[in-house]
Write a structure and sequence with these properties.
12 helices; mainly alpha; single chain
């Protein structure tokens, strides 16, 4: 048991760091002698990762705050009203605490502001309870992408990256889960968050398409760009549509815009069925 003096390396077989507040570390001296030697040569410090809901012994000698934090991880009712003292029971990171004090306080004066506070509180709570505070800025980047007016967006790069993230969690990560039936990996992005982001983007783009279906039809059939192409370019990127010159136009003849015919005509593009249905409905409305 530590603290203690360790014997010479030749007498050691294994070193383990155990404790309820930190993730365990095990070094097998016989199999990997170089690891321990490198640790001892660098001032003898071995860094360990603190568990979520636990503070250091210096900050929480008796473990009372740790008990509070563990009870909060089992109770999701505080998702939309996080108190700074609760966050302090999870982490002492000054950046996280500053974020909580500035952006996770309800004022009750503005409903829209309170809704944003609720989202930020949920994201912060998810990060600190699942030991991933480092990706809080990624959550905020995604939140900014889906809430920024597309007419003010600087290009389509951000939305294209968001599309890759959503596609990964919808298809690839689902496949990974099926291969780990016993110990399934925990996703960095919660499925509910991905659903919220998808719904938000779909709402914005589908609202634009409903108001201006002719712009998509003119581009796909004739290659004509509108005077304000922001929404059209984002729609093309988000749904994975090719340039107009590469878009099949055989199904346009006759005006028979039925799902089976369009699915066969657009099969090579590997579009999703919802995207094909959107295109079909758009051409039908423009007739």
């Amino acid at each position: 048991m530590a603290p203690c003096l360790i014997p010479e390396l030749r007498y050691l077989h294994q070193i383990k760091i155990l404790g309820p507040r930190y993730w365990p570390v095990s070094i097998d001296v016989e199999k990997s002698p170089g690891i321990l030697k490198s640790v001892l040569s660098c001032n003898g410090c071995l860094y360990v990762k603190q568990r979520a809901g636990h503070l250091s012994y210096e900050q929480d000698p008796k473990g009372y705050l740790s008990l509070l934090a563990r009870s909060m991880t089992e109770d999701s009712s505080s998702y939309h009203s996080i108190d700074l003292e609760v966050i302090k029971s999870f982490t002492s990171d000054p950046k996280v605490l500053e974020f909580a004090s500035r952006f996770c306080k309800h004022t009750g004066k503005n409903q829209e502001n309170d809704e944003i506070v609720a989202v930020f509180s949920t994201l912060l709570y998810d990060c600190v309870t699942r030991e991933k505070p480092d990706i809080l800025h990624c959550f905020l980047d995604i939140f900014e992408i889906v809430n920024q007016p597309l007419s003010l967006a600087n290009g389509t790069y951000a939305l294209s990256q968001l599309r890759l993230v959503l596609a990964f969690y919808k298809h690839t990560f689902t496949g990974l889960l099926s291969k780990h039936s016993e110990s399934a990996p925990t996703p960095l992005l919660h499925p509910q968050f991905c659903s919220m982001v998808t719904s938000k983007v779909d709402l914005v783009l589908n609202s634009w398409l409903k108001d201006a279906p002719g712009k998509l039809v003119q581009y796909l059939s004739q290659g004509t760009w509108p005077s304000a192409p922001h929404y059209l370019s984002h729609f093309l990127i988000y749904h994975g549509l090719p340039p107009s010159k590469n878009f099949p136009k055989d199904f346009l003849s006759g005006g028979n815009f039925k799902l089976p015919k369009m699915y066969v005509a657009l099969k090579e593009l590997k579009l999703s069925v919802p995207t094909i249905m959107l295109i079909m409905q758009t051409f039908q409305c423009s007739r």
